[in-house]
């Protein structure tokens, strides 16, 4: 994934965590909502002065905004896990590997 797309996804997640619409955040940082949309999908990037406004509006640090952790909610993670299991459901060897890996992770703590 390229940097602009990764940044946009992180920005979108942080915005949603603050229960803000694109329109609300765009107003807070003084840009057109269409520009914010372009940033969130990775087709555009922010200017330095806009970046400073985003940090203030979302009350996050530069490190938090640019970290690549992209922490997902438990619901999102479970959805992804289910998707992977569905992809492997007709392959007993893959399901066995998934099962062993999950058991290892859960009981290795």
Structure characterization notes:
Helix 1 crosses helix 3 (33-41). With 109 residues, the protein is mainly α. The chain is built from seven helices and no strands. The relative contact order is 0.11. It folds into two domains: 3-66, 434 Repressor (Amino-terminal Domain) (Orthogonal Bundle), CATH 1.10.260; 74-107, no CATH class. The mean pLDDT is 89. It has helices spanning 3-17, 22-29, 33-41, 48-58, 62-66, 74-88, 92-107.
Low-pLDDT sequence parts: none
Shape: elongated
Indicate the radius of gyration in whole angstroms: 18 Å
Helical stretch count? 7
Beta-strand percentage range: under 5%
Q: Roughly how much helix do the residues carry, as a percent range?
A: over 70%
CATH domain fold name of the largest domain? 434 Repressor (Amino-terminal Domain)
Class from secondary-structure proportions: mainly alpha
CATH architecture call of the largest domain: Orthogonal Bundle
Name of the CATH first level of the largest domain: Mainly Alpha
- The total domain count is 2
Name the CATH superfamily classification of the largest domain. lambda repressor-like DNA-binding domains
SSE run:
HHHHHHH
Q: Taking all residues together, what is the mean pLDDT?
A: 89
Distance between the termini: 31 Å
Largest sheet: none
Number of strands: 0
